[in-house]
């Protein structure tokens, strides 16, 4: 089974935090333990133990990742330059013969990835290619909506308008409507066939976007507001609306997104807490077709802040057992771990 993870901030970890995703996770951890002073998360002041490394992706069967271009708010030219640097990084990574990474921005490339991935015997996971589909998290690197076409030519296929507030939309903890620029960007996305990622959209912007935008809609990384009542998570109505568009919602594997009010002093969070969110979506929508994984591993938190069964991205497959224990069929489990995202990409990517 090929697992899809719909949200990993790989480029920003490399370019901003000096990590190297080509290394095994333990090597990254060793380097960071020895770094003086040790790296600290600016938000929590604590160290975050890395979970992403391409050897672990391969070993765990994680064959396709939505790899983000993520730039926090800042001065326009710097934000645009940072976004381009991340886009170029992915191209450079894919150009390295020994990295075993390829960019996936057409159906032809997706089919090729699946063919080659399944052809590599499970006994030699090193030969499995890892596909990256590029996702812009927060649209501010685009100076203007018209810039999208150039980014599209460079392989960008998914765009989230917001993170916090952006020049395009209201975002997390920044309520508000779409801006005129946001409306124009949605029109450009629809014209080019770019997927809309609604994660981080302020609720007012979310509903406006769904009404305006006729293309494919997802939430790459968001959980249920029913359990974690913050504006960063999806209300039941938002979940139903994404499902009504045959979209998919990626479960975030951060403890504070799984259990409301979680801190490092709280009792351990487990994969059963992840299943609780997934099951809520399945019950609301009457189907297991709209759930996937969007781990957000290394997205500002580390292994200390993830369910206790997980040590690295290699462990994503453990979710299969937790879902089976909750009564999910083999087909449903395969869909949630990857099949649902693959079906959506088959529909959304250009033929190519
Ligand atoms: Zn995010």
What are the SSEs and their pairings?
Elements lengths: L2 E6 L1 H8 L7 H10 L19 H6 L2 E9 L5 H20 L5 E3 L3 H13 L10 E8 L10 H6 L2 E5 L19 H13 L2 E3 L5 H10 L4 E2 L17 H9 L4 E3 L3 H4 L12 H15 L5 E3 L24 H8 L4 H19 L4
Bound molecules: zinc ion.
The site of zinc ion has 5 residues, from loops.
Structure, described:
It is a single chain. The chain is of the alpha/beta class. The chain has a single domain (about 5-350), classed as TIM Barrel. About 40% of the residues lie in helices and about 10% in strands. It has helices at about 10-15, 25-35, 55-60, 75-95, 105-120, 150-155, 180-190, 205-210, 235-245, 255-260, 270-285, 320-325, 330-350, and strands at about 5-10, 60-70, 100-105, 130-135, 155-160, 195, 215-220, 250, 290-295. Strands 1, 2, 3, 4, 5, 6 and 7 form a 7-stranded parallel sheet that branches. A two-stranded parallel sheet has the order 8-9. Helix 11 packs across helix 12 and helix 12 (about 320-325) crosses helix 13. The model has no long low-confidence stretch (mean pLDDT about 95). Zinc ion binds next to loops. Zinc ion binds near residues 137, 200, 221 and 299.
